[in-house]
Structure formats: structure tokens, C-alpha cells
UniProtKB/TrEMBL annotation:
Superkingdom to which the source organism belongs: Eukaryota
Pfam families recorded: ABC_membrane_2
Protein name: ABC transmembrane type-1 domain-containing protein
Classification via InterPro entries: ABC1_TM_dom (IPR011527), ABC_transporter_sub-D (IPR050835)
Gene Ontology BP term (one): fatty acid beta-oxidation
Keywords annotated in UniProt: Membrane, Transmembrane, Transmembrane helix, Transport
GO molecular function: ABC-type transporter activity; ATP binding; long-chain fatty acid transmembrane transporter activity
Organism expressing this protein natively: Reticulomyxa filosa
Domain ABC transmembrane type-1: 2-150
GO cellular component, one term: peroxisomal membrane
Length: 254
């Protein structure tokens, strides 16, 4: 849990830096672009990224749950290592090293398989996000940059800029620079959705720890060693057994 708290604090600080500065950039660059080419340009950029965010939200896997599950598996693996160290003498005395090795290998394989699945999922989502930001943004950007010349305000722009090649080139470079910075700012906020999910997973684990600490402070101790649903599936639910008094010995039959 100490590592989880560290990861939670790191994710929270990264999320703060990935949202506050881009929001300020969006406001400043949008105001400047609106003065140069009207609100159609910034509105088109914001609209494109809002659609991208909507698509990402619906196809993105639950990274929060995956992160929480990864921390649970890693914690389980560390717990078994600690148990092995604590009871090493007893395990060696009863020759239980083979069984303990099987348990540790099983825990590690579960953790490795889950991390492999998370990495493969992140690879697909990262490729999709880069496609939206790179190719989609380029197509959208060219259409926005052409608004002063080919849009509704083309005649007004021709009268103010004298429609010379140097003036058009100067405005194109200036507007493209502003548009690139605006796109980067919005893109950072859109791609922060995965970071929000990851922070939610860490928050869930930290919340569980806080609940346990509150229960201990209140004197409530409830620890479940066996999953009741698993017992019910195998017909071993508490209270469903039968007792037969036959002789002076105890026998358990399943």
C-alpha cells in the first residue's frame, strides 16, 4: 500500500500539471485566433477534440479497474514473499518448498499475464490516440487555416490584407503557430482521460485502506478468509453440512 500511495500522489500531481496549463493555453490561444479569423476556427478545433474525446471514452478499456487489479495482484505476490520469509523455518522443516514455489510461480504468472494484457491494451489505445492527434488534427488544421481566404469572411480579409502573397503567407504562419499550440493544449486534456482512469484505480485502493483504518479506529475487525460465493458454488456453504454421531472419533467427509 505504501507504493500504491506513492503512485496515487504521482498520478494526482501529473494530472494537475496536465490540465491547468493546457486550460490556460486554450483560453489565450482561442481568444487570439478569434480576433484573427473569428470563432469558427477555435470552435472547429474544440469540436473536433470533443468528438475525439467522446470516441475515446466509449472505446477505451477500464484502465482504472485494470490498474487496481494490477496493484492487488502485485500486493498478493509481495504478501506471499513476505509469508515465505516469515515462515521459512517451518516450510523447510516440513519440506514444503516445492508447494511454496508452485504458489509463488502461480501468483507471478497471474501478475505477468495481467501486466501483459494492460501493455497490449495501452499500445492499441496509444496508437489510436496518436492517429487522432496526428492525421486528424492535420486535416482539421488545414481546413481551419483556409477559413480567412476561403471562408465567409474572405472578401473582408482580402480588403484588409490587400491579398498579397507575402501578407497571406505571414498570416498563414502566424495562424498555424497559434493553431498548433491550441491543438496541443486540447490534445493533452483529451489524452489525460487515461490518466484520470489510472488515478481512479489508485484512489479506489487508497479508499479501501482508509476504510480499514477507520474500522480499526472504531474497534471493528472483520476479515474474510474464504469467499462465500466460491463455497456456495462447491456446495460448501456454512450451515449445510450434516453431523452423524457414530463413534468416539471425528471424521470430515466432503
Amino acid at each position: 500500500m505504501t507504493e500504491t500511495i506513492t503512485l496515487w500522489g504521482r498520478a494526482l500531481s501529473e494530472l494537475y500539471s496536465n490540465i491547468t496549463k493546457p486550460l490556460l493555453d486554450i483560453v489565450l490561444f482561442s481568444l487570439k485566433l478569434s480576433e484573427l479569423m473569428g470563432w469558427e476556427g477555435p470552435g472547429t478545433v474544440v469540436g473536433y477534440y470533443m468528438i475525439s474525446l467522446f470516441v475515446i471514452r466509449h472505446i477505451s478499456p477500464p484502465f482504472g479497474a485494470l490498474t487496481a487489479r494490477a496493484q492487488e495482484l502485485e500486493g498478493d505476490f509481495r504478501t506471499n514473499h513476505h509469508r515465505l520469509i516469515t515462515h521459512s523455518e517451518e516450510i523447510a522443516f516440513y519440506s514444503g518448498h516445492k508447494r511454496e514455489k508452485q504458489v509463488l510461480n502461480s501468483k507471478y504468472e497471474k501478475l505477468e499475464d495481467h501486466n501483459q494484457y494492460v501493455l497490449e491494451t495501452k499500445l492499441g489505445m496509444t496508437a489510436f490516440n496518436n492517429f487522432l492527434q496526428k492525421y486528424g488534427s492535420v486535416m482539421m488544421g488545414y481546413s481551419v487555416l483556409g477559413l480567412p481566404v476561403f471562408g465567409k469572411r474572405a472578401s473582408q480579409y482580402a480588403n484588409t490584407a490587400a491579398a498579397t502573397a507575402s501578407d497571406i503567407t505571414q498570416d498563414y504562419i502566424r495562424n498555424s503557430s497559434l493553431l498548433i499550440n491550441l491543438s496541443k493544449a486540447i490534445g493533452r486534456i483529451v489524452t489525460s482521460y487515461e490518466a484520470v482512469q489510472r488515478l481512479a484505480g489508485y484512489t479506489q485502493l487508497v479508499g479501501r485502506l482508509q476504510d480499514v483504518l477507520n474500522d480499526l479506529h472504531a474497534g471493528v475487525y472483520d476479515r474474510k478468509f474464504v469467499d462465500s460465493e466460491l463455497l456456495a458454488q462447491k456446495g460448501l456453504a456454512p450451515g449445510k453440512g450434516e453431523r452423524h454421531i457414530v463413534d468416539d472419533y471425528i471424521e470430515f467427509d466432503i
